[in-house]
Structures are given as structure tokens and as C-alpha cells.
Amino acid sequence: MLAYCWYSDRPPPEALDLAQSGWNRVAAPAPHEAGPPPDDCAIVVDSRHVPPSRLLMLRAAPRATRARMLFAGVDSSAERSALLAAGFGDAIDGNAVRSEVEQRALRLLRHREEAVLFRRAGPILLDLAARVAWISGRQLGLHPREFALLWRLAETPGVAVDRLRLLRDVCHVGHDPGTNRIAVHISRLRTKLAQVNLGGLIETDIAGAYRIVPIHASQPSTNALDRAAACCEQGAREKVGAKVMI
């Protein structure tokens, strides 16, 4: 199901309520929570009823998160231009109808799916399409949930993400089930990372949240990332070709 996150002090008006078009409305993170909203939803911001402190937080969000944001109710052309220049996905005035808002939100999600196929976690290259983690030309052999955790943490390297946020973003659980499933998956992930001398890549802070420790010296350059991505794609094609021959 398509999902959107609503940022406002008030319920969405009919023109902006994508739930009336069949979307699932996801609760926006509380102001004190670290990290972005779930990475599989569009973000609709009611520019007229969002506190200035929340706007500052949104402006400080990672570029990939800002690209999923649609600011609604921005009647000034100059303000819309400034938002687009700041890297936000879209901005519309107060006259838009829900069908237009929905199409713009869909465009943001499509753009995100096309644009974000690879991420880095230290020296590890994460291939979203294949759900594979690569290091030094070989796969780490991660379980899908382990890959999803590493992918989520790699979205905001250096930023601690708490257990409830990981439950929401990775396990798609909107409440606290009172289990240690995140701790178990993190432990297994760390064990596999330790096998390639990266046992300290994921750090736990004093509050029990997790973050990727930036390892700038070992991160490949953009050109190296492009070459690694090309190798991943070539390997996938060869694998498919081998299956066809068999």
C-alpha cells in the first residue's frame, strides 16, 4: 500500500488527505525523535501549520529525505523556488486538489525508487535491487532483515536511530511489541561484519540507539562507487545468463 507521512499541527484537509485516495497515513516522528520518517513513504508538509522548530529540523534532514518532501500551501512563487533550490522534492500553492497532490507524491516516490539503488556503509557497498552487501568484491551473505537494518542505518551515517524507529522503518511495526527482535538482528549483523574486520561499524549509544560509525578513510570515491555498482550489475547479468544456460 502507498504511504505518506503528514507533517502538521492539524489534521489534513480534504485536498491533502491522501488517505481518502487509499493511501496509508503514517504518523510523523515526534519532534524529539532522531532520524527521518520511514523511507518508503512520501512526506507531505503543511507549510502553514508547522512550527518553525519543526521546519528547521526538516531543512536539516538528509538530501534523500528532503527529496521526498512535498510542501503544500506555499502561495509565494519565491518561497516555492527557494524550497526547490534547497533540495526539497516539490512545493505547491493552496489551490491544489487531491488528485494533483497524489500525482506529485507518486512522482516523488518513483524518483526515489529510480535514484537510490546503492548506499555505502563504511567500505561496504549496499545493492538495493539485489539486496546484497559487497566488500572487496565479495558478498557478505546478509539475511534480508539484516540487509534492511544496514540499509536504514546507512541512510543517516553517524546519526543514532532508536529501536522504535527501526521497528517502524525496517519491520513495519507501528507499536512497541516488547520484544528484542532488533537487538537480535543487530547482534547477528555485527557477527557477520566482524568476519570482515568491521565489528565496530555499528555502535550503540548510551540510550540504546544504533548508528553507523563513519569510516571516511575507507569509503570509496564516487568513481569507485560507480565502478562497484557496474560490477554488481555485470555479476547479476552473468548469474541470470548462467541460469538460462542451465
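Next protein, fold it too.
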Amino acid sequence: MTRPSPRALLVGAGAVLALGLLAMGGWFWRDAAQRQAQAAYAAAMTGAQPGRGAQATPEARAAAIQGLEAVLGRYPSAPGAAEAAYELGNLRYAAGAWAGARGAWEIALVKATASPTLRRLAQASIGYAWEAERKYGSAAEAYRAALAALGPQDFLYEQLLLNLARVQEVVGQKAEAVQTYRRVLAEVSQTRRGPEIRARLLALGAS
């Protein structure tokens, strides 16, 4: 059996060392890239603050939208993408860009795998965007999809049911709306919206 020469051993050791250094360098690069992405998202979210709220000027809102679009385009897979996409949807909605808002919320829905709360907010918001476009059938589908995995104790369950009932009223589905309102009263026993719901039932000829 031929023993490897000292040079071969050195070359082999050098290759192993090089691989180790490459792996370490890759880790440091990923860590640095992640920190850079986090800093970029933090800056974009902070920069978006002047564009929030009813008192925001169109120019401030447009600048906030542009900043969030830029960071999402640059770091689409970074951990902050879901929150930024949700905020982008809010800003676009406030600007009257319903389809664009819905698109941003759909991105947030896909990316918010680690945040059930953010996913529910995005799902509900998608329904609001459809309502704003007067596409009530699509809005109802969005609310039903959001409700599918929820129970009476879950965040937004009651509000999603009320949203669905409202849409059913708008399109003239009175029997379905009555059923949904009654479902709220039956399943959310501690609801604070009882008087409002009963008023809607009376308006629909039910009780």
C-alpha cells in the first residue's frame, strides 16, 4: 500500500481547511446579509410612519409606499418581509389602490408563516379590499377562508363573522345574513356587539 506523500497530506489538509474557511465565511456573509436586511426593513418601517393615518399627505404616503416597495424588492425573503408587506397593503388601501393593497396583503399572507395573528389580519384585509371594489362575492369567499381554521375563542373570529354577514346583507342574501348574525350570538356568548347584531336582525325581519 502506497502511503500518501507529505505534499499530498498538506494539499488534503489545505483543502479541508479551505472548505472550513469557506463555510465559516459563508456563515459570516449570511449573518451580515441578514443584519443588513433587518436594518433596511427597520428603516423602511420607520420611514413609513409619516404616511400612516388619516392626516398623512398624499406625498408622505407615496414616499412610504415607495420605501416599502423598494425594501421588499431588495430583500423579498428576509424575516421582516411579512410585516412590511402588510404595512404596504395598509398604505395602498389608504391611497385607494384596492387591487395593489390586496396584492400586498396576499404577499404578507404567504410570508407570515410564523405569525398566525398577522395571517388573520392579512386575510381579513383582503376581504376589505374586495369590498372596497364592490366585489362582494370575492369578499365573502375571503372571509369564509379566514374563518375556516378559526374557532369562537380565536382572534378576529367575531369580526370576520360580522364582516361576512354585512356582505351577505349587501348582496341581498337575507336568510344567510340572519344565520350568520345568529351564529355570532350563539358562538360568541360574551360579545359586546349584541345590541348592534339584534338591531340588524330586526331590520332583516328576524329576531
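About the second fold: The mean pLDDT is 86.
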